[in-house]
Amino acid sequence: MTTSMFSQASTAPSPAAAAAASAAEAAAHPAPHAEQDLPRAHSSRGGRYARLPLLAGKGFIPLGLFARLPLAMLTVGALTLVTAVTGSYAVGGAAAGAVGIGSALGAPVLGAWADRLGQRPVLLVAAVFNTAAVVALILTAYLVPSGQDLAAAVPVLVAAFVAGASCPQVGPLARVRWMALTARGSTAGNAKDLDAALSYESTADELTFVLGPALVGILASLVAPWLPLALAAALTLTLVPAFAVHRTHLAVPLSVRRRRPVAGPATAGPDAAGPTTAGSATAGPGTAGVRGNGMAAVALPFLAMVCMGTFFGSTQTGLSSFSASFATAELAGLLYAVMGLSSAAAALSVAYWPTRFTLSARWMVSAVLMACLAVLLLVPASAFSMVLVLLVLGLPVGPLMVTVFAIGGVVAPAGRLGTVMTALASGIVAGTALGSSVAGQLAQHQGYSAAFLVPVCAAAALFLLGAAAAVVLRNGKARRGTQLAGSR
Count of CB atoms within 10 A of residue 142's CB? Predict the structure, then answer.
């Protein structure tokens, strides 16, 4: 699963009250970066994304972008290397699947450890361990005889699984940092900052998952099949530690300690509400009370990401079958990149959407558009017409990803934000495997048209989950209002 612009001056209370509030906030929760305290008006000339470097520092954005590139290279890199060495697509595909399963299982574990121990030590250990695991995968592929037999390839598959499970989850943990950095105070401007940050993060994911496989293909074909994984290991060993020690990690423990669930009138003060996120402005005041819904509230965005991954995986597989019908299956990667680029561009636009367009409404509108536009995948008979369809189809995808991640931040239990963000990312990985499997069977026996029905169904399921999320958000807000009224 890349700009620079934004901010708006927020309304303030009386000067004396504002000064007192600011002093108390600074004393209780010191900012991790001096630039965070710059006046919002200073960035108003640059557009809505100009606030992001002020919040996190200028180096954080490119660092977070390139530090997640190894994850985007790992699955395709394992597929390319193992297939080239063994001469078997089955063994190569199994290695890629082992990476995906490892990542889906390992990501929430790394997120939970980051919540408990802090991001810095977890990322530092993961960077070193993952580098060793990727090197072991390269050596195992070349040194352990495997041939085209899956049973003989078990050492390679184990190495691939460990490499996937230990891969540092830079993207989800970067979102946690943005949520912490934008969670100070309760103004609508803060929610707009988070909208901009999450829009950028979704765009960064899209770009890396387009550039990563392309880089693997170029290096493997022009130099050697081991080089992409070696480069991924080098990037992990250098960029992930730099991301780990970046001063923005200091914001996360402070933010986690402030996020307390609403337990009743005794906790219905300012701390009980917790810091705002994008949902506080877009979903209405008191959305933090949604955390009282527990696992059910968290399950909805997780299942949505599984459906999103199913949409991605089935679309990729359907495009492979479509491309093979008149050209070569390799053309599918270029076609899929078209949807990724339009999705990334649309994700950036979310920062400019009005706050009255609530998270629930965003989710359902985007899902409806995805379902309707996915039907158009059944129409094209040429690459050019498919490009046009994919350009339009990508438009609701990016905004929906931004929205689901924002809701995940709203409903995350106290102290479990990293766990939830990494779980959402692993949901995409698991869904991609599911979608690829189901669509592959349909394409094999009934053609690409049958395979393209899977993304249509996945988008329809996203709409149903969005409707359920709207009910959960509304009930949580109502419960929060009742608790606040009782505390008075």
Answer: 12
